[in-house]
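If you are new to this repository, start here. Below is one unmodified record pulled from the training split, so you can see the exact layout before writing a loader.
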Amino acid sequence: QVQLVESGGGLVQAGGSLRLSCAASGSISRINAMGWYRQAPAKQRELVAIITVGGSTNYVDSVKGRFTISGDNVKNTVYLQMNSLKPEDTAVYYCNSYPYRNYWGKGTLVTVSS
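And here is the target side for that same chain:
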């Protein structure tokens, strides 16, 4: 089983920045890619960014140029640097493998005020 713990969320004004962290433990050796996902109120969970074990990244169009996903293989941690935040980025952010598996963490809440 895999355990995921997200942290770093909070309340920030529009235009501000936050850095999210995701600590992974357990049976992670077979994971080839990690993703950050988010779920806004009354909306479905969506994929935001992906990073492969080789370091390749990809982003949903709405965050391109503002968010950066990175990883530390030694610490088994994935990060999401979020800049120029907008109110529409408000959501609970989760990390998971990509494609996702049934081992979601509790997520971390990001609230962007206008």
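Two things worth knowing about this chain: The chain has no helices and ten strands. Strands lie at 2-7, 10-13, 18-26, 33-39, 46-52, 57-59, 67-72, 77-82, 91-97, 108-113.
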